[in-house]
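Technical note accompanying the year-one report. For the benefit of new consortium partners, we illustrate the data format agreed upon in the data management plan: each record pairs a sequence with a structure-token string. No post-processing was applied to the example shown here.
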Amino acid sequence: MKNYTTFFTIKRLWITLVVSLVLSFSALLYLGGQIYQQAPPIPNAVKTTNGVIIYSKQDIEDGQNIWQTTGGMQQGSVWGHGSYLAPDWSADWLHREALNLLDVIKSNKYRSNYLTVSEKNALYTGELKEVMRKNTYDSLTGITTVSNDRAIAIGRTEAHFVNLYTSDSTEYKALRENYAFPIQTILNKEKARKLSAFFFWTSWAASTNRPGDDITYTSNWPHEPLVGNTPSPSVLLWSIISIILLLAGIGGIVWYYASQFDDWREQSAPENGIAKQDFIENTKVTPSMRATAKYFWVVTALFLSQVLLGIVTAHYAVDGQEFYGIPIGDYLPYAVSRTWHTQLAIFWIATAWLATGLYVAPLISGHEPKFQRFGVNFLFFSLLLIVVGSFAGQWLAVNGFFEDLTLNFWFGHQGYEYVDLGRFWQIYLFVGLMLWVGLLLRALLPAFKDKNLKSLLFVVVLATVSIGLLYAAGFMWGKNTNIAIMEYWRWWVVHLWVEGVFEVFAAAIISVLFVRMGLLRTSVATTMVLFTTIVFLGGGVLGTLHHIYWSGTPISIIAVGATFSALEVVPLVVIGFEAYNHKKLEHQADWQTNYHWPFMFFSAVLFWNLVGAGLFGFLINPPISLYYMQGLNITANHGHAALFGVYGMLGIGLMLYAMRGLTDVRKWDHKLLKITFWSLNIGLAMMTFLSLLPQGFWQTYQSIATSYVSARSVEFIQSDIMHALVWARVPGDIVFSVGVFAFVWFVFKAFVGKK
């Protein structure tokens, strides 16, 4: 009777999962359609009232492509998305143009002497807001008209940005150094003018009211009192609603877990008792499984490289173009260093997961398909070529070797964070992912003969296919796509691909292995995986929208994003139950001590899921929080704690699990693993709590008290307080680095040592 009931419970969960995914993705696509319709238009021309053309549509689109060649989001940010050292270009242009226009208004307008200074200033600022916020875009002609006064202000603002990229003066060289630009000029004046056109347009969208509304295309972001950019009522309303929903969701999920926990605890033992020995002991390591060893060597090398580049990238904030006296900026510009640092994080973590899938599939099924080893080797060299080729293209682009903008788009630097690689390499990676899907599924297929594992294996298949297909969202934009539309699809890749289906894949794979190891009942593992997937993706799919509140999207994005991103945190509050289960599973048989360190890293994933993804994530997710915090170091704090703390730790845990069969576990140096585990976790905690989090809070205070642009200004970033907080990373970085080097040495000894 219990099995009959369990069968229908699993069946209902499958129905719920399918329905929730269909509804969630349907809603996400519908809202994407709204973004296409309401995105800030790129005008055919920006003209003065006298008919003089200031910028053409071609200027703006070329400027966007030129911005990409300079590193794009890796050299400052646009609409809050990108790096934190240089300014946000939209906010910076907006502030400078507003000040210039205010000067023009003051010099051109006669005011009666009987008015006080404050009354005159009120008139001046009132006129400034009216001019800046009025929407003069004509949808029939595609022309935006600006007053002669504003044209003068635009010209003065453009002169600053042209000089920033071209001038040899001491003033602008010093500014480029503070922004971590290449000191030597890399643009000619015509390119710098077109780049200015793109910055103007992103600023125009941030200060111009939507048609028939009193808020801007970016929902009044950034905070800029000069032009009346303050949080709109909807931002406050949906922030309150998101907090209420979070509390309600937490109550519901805790009640559900509490009601089911006793049953799960009673049923957690396998049907036939605890396994007497590790099933891997008697499992033959097939040629394709053995071929995955080289993947883990590369994972280790990429991990080490990523950490070293992170140290160099952080150092740019306090020591300009030099690294302890070495003029590193001449050879490795900040935009390249940061690009490689963020890309390597994705590459080594994804490679660890992909390799684990290739290793585990024959292990689960006991079947080695024909030519599987060849496929694994071919995929390996393809991935290696993608890393080397894309990195070379990015270095060439930032150093000014790609004169042709189309060539840069295909082989250089796309400029978009986490998908910086050129379109050719992007397509090559997609083909590689589809090859991985085919290799994994053909090896896993015979395992479906085991009826008890079918549901779990279907989750693995669902996640595997999604990993392959969702990356294709990165092809939905082209060289000249409106950046508001590009951002919608980019976050499909970053949030749904990196943060979503990979985690579902890992959870399902781990559960299958736990069942095969005799640690969990099939029914319990299946129920827990399906339930977790429903809750996680139920909030995660539409929670993607919290990334694009201010990216030229309609108000509905704020409403839906705030609501569902709050629900993303809900399953993390029961992390204690999962940690307890992991700890309990470890001590059911003597052979399980061989898996002590994989279990420890899986437990670390649970901790950082709660802290990094949960607490730090919800800190910035409500619209009112993100309005002031987007693009500040508090976002970097969440990114480091969640990306490495969750996905990095999980990658290492999966890698150690695979190494259990590829190496002799009796020869493992457990002291090195102990140093690795505690150094990585303690170092990450020190990095976040001693440096990134205080930096973010200090910037947030400045953003709220004054303006967003002031929190990103060179004066603030290069202040003594910010320098001190950046240097406060050093102790944590040292501790973390000890863990990295210990891990590298452990891997070397494990693979090279005699079996």
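Partners are asked to follow this layout when depositing records. The first helix runs from residue 2 to 38.
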